[in-house]
Amino acid sequence: MDDRRTVKVSKYVSKHLRHQPERIGLVLDPQGWVEIDDLLAAAAAHRFPISRAELDHVVAANDKQRFAVQGTRIRASQGHTVPVDLDLPDAEPPAYLYHGTVAAALAAIRAEGLRPMARHHVHLSPDRETATRVGARRGRPVVLAVDAGAMRAAGHVFRISANGVWLTDAVPPQFLRFP
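Given the sequence above, the corresponding structure tokens read:
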């Protein structure tokens, strides 16, 4: 499977497991799972056939490990805009986590902190390198440090997804360290 097809399949699966399952007739269970056979049949019925081998390759090769497979089911690891409960336990974060963004967003972030926007949670990275890659998707990256230890001490809850992305409801501005 070439790189272009891998990216195209990954984006298609992400879109329908995270944002628009109903568009192709999928019904996610409360934790976001769907039968793999149902996903493949729905994709084929909507003129985007995906083989099981292609799906397995996308799941295994995805650099961000966006998908989780459990037996005969698949789900997106995080980033949903549709209602799901990933049933992730509370986790003790490291002292600092990181968030990649761009300069154009800094004024709003300084005023309001980090908000989940259309997603369920704010996504945080465990290291500066990952946050830099995340921020670079939208332009020249700016990496913010999040004082996760102080947030946790103040009662904020953190969870970690299967692919190592840290999730929290919001990050108030006082817990952010700007470059």
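The chain has two domains: 3-76, 97-177. Try to locate this feature in the token string yourself.
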